[in-house]
Amino acid sequence: MQTLFKNIKGDRLIWAIAALLAIFSFLPVYSAASNLAYVGGGAGNTFTYFVKHFMHLFLGFAIMYGVHKIPYRYFRGLSMVMIPIVIVLLVVTMLQGTTIDGANASRWIQIPFIGMSFQTSTLAAVVLMVYVARYLSKIQNKKIAFVETLLPLWAPVFIVLILILPANFSTTAIIFLMVMMLAFIGGYPVKYLAVIIGTGLVALTLFVLVAKAFPDTMPNRVDTWMSRVENFANGENTEADYQSENAKIAIASGGVKGKGPGKSTQKNVLPQSSSDFIFAIIIEEYGLIGGLFLLVLYSWLLFRIVIVSQKSDTIFGKLLVLGVGLPIIFQALTNMAVAVELFPVTGQTLPLISSGGTSIWMTCLAIGIILSVSAKREQMKEQEVNNDNPLEILSETI
After folding, report:
1. With 50 as the cut, is the pLDDT of residue 332 above it?
2. Which of 31, 107, 179, 259 would disulfide-bridge 263, Cβ 3.0–4.6 Å?
3. Does residue 164 fall inside a structural domain?
4. Under 8 Å CB-to-CB from 3, ≥6 apart: which residues?
């Protein structure tokens, strides 16, 4: 164990925050899983879901540890290799044609020989952000023409987004927003960004029109998005608002201190209580104090991400940290906003808290990349200290 801790590099506070989030997740996931155990064929055994969540986190932290040992400069080339692989995986996922309740739900593929499902869009999001960071660092301080960036930068972005959109609008919107934010931070001309945003809106409009004209192509999915947004804007209470209404009941009954661990009642009627709406269960059981505790942790993580980015010795390192780090915070805030009905239902999980393997693994992958950049900074500082040591200089001279 001591050897393991000695080999841990990078920002120790980020390690601590990730560990705190993971440890805190066990109680609400175990509590909320009771509904899954009795309804979802778990034979009444909630411990099965506890062990499953533990294994997801264990593998996630193994990914984090392994990735953080890789020098971050290698991610520049890996992103170019992974982009075509991700596109192929998205095509395979979309061609499955999976439907749930008549709606397109082609989001997961089965991992051969293991029997586990994997959501390809989450991997695509991380790979795409690394790819965009690589390209932006490449053109830094160069005068570029818009046409020059269409094929190497925006073509992969729009291909990935188009392949995700039919089954998952919220993920598509978040990825697009994060790419725009990273491009802005990376110094990409604002006038060109305006063109890309306009093109994206036109493409979305055409997609909606085609989907409405040929509903058999994307069964009910566009109608689901539109109804959620319309009902949220109009404040109407329909069957689609069932989750939001029960989430608000859970939050309202939690009060300041909460009901106590495992004492949630809304977990028995709230769908996705261990994933999409786990924040509502946390507030019901741990009150406003528990909700603020999570908010502080994610804010602290954001602060450390910015610090690591600023201390990076290269433009690529700076953009890489922001590119994979900011989506984690944005996803967390989105999940919380949905629970308190500030946003319509999006289906986004709470990073490192919600149950679900793919979300945990890709969050750990992103954090591992951030730690890799931080570890490089630590290595450089150690080299500077050694170079300043007279004994080291003397030994090298001898």
Report:
1. yes
2. 259
3. yes
4. none
Contact predicate 37/17, CB 8 Å: no
How far apart (Å, rounded) are the C-alpha atoms in residues 334 and 315?
Answer: 28
Q: Provide the CB-side half-sphere exposure for 89 (13 A, CA).
A: 20
Of the CA atoms within 13 Å of residue 205, those in its CB half-sphere come to: 6
Q: Give 296's Cβ-side CA count (13 Å radius).
A: 7
> What DSSP element (H or E) covers 67?
helix 47-68
CA nearest to 150, candidates 89, 192, 180: 192
* 3-state SS class at 360: helix
Both structure tokens of 13: 């506070």
Backbone angles phi, psi at 242, to 5 degrees: -55, -45
Question: Do residues 163 and 90 touch, judged by C-beta distance below 8 A?
Answer: yes
Mean pLDDT of 26-54: 74
Tell me, yes or no, whether 390 lies in a domain.
Answer: no
C-beta of residue 251 within 8 angstroms of C-beta of residue 219: no
- Its pTM stands at 0.88
Continuous segment of H or E residues that includes residue 176: helix 169-185
Instruction: Please give the biggest Cα pair distance in the chain.
Output: 81
The answer, yes or no, to whether residue 206 has pLDDT greater than 90, is no
Number of domains comprising the chain: 1
Buried b (16+ CB within 10 A) or exposed e, 374-396: bbbbeeeeeeeeeeeeeeeeeee
Residue 160 forms part of a structural domain:
yes
Structure-token match 């925006």, residue found: 154
Task: Please provide the size of the chain in residues.
Answer: 398
Q: Is 395 contained in some domain? A: no
Q: Write the burial class of residue 111 (CB in 10 Å: 0-12 exposed, 13-18 middle, 19+ buried).
A: exposed
* pLDDT (0 to 100) of residue 190: 93
Range of the domain at 98: 2-382
Q: How far apart are CA 7 and CA 121, in angstroms?
A: 31
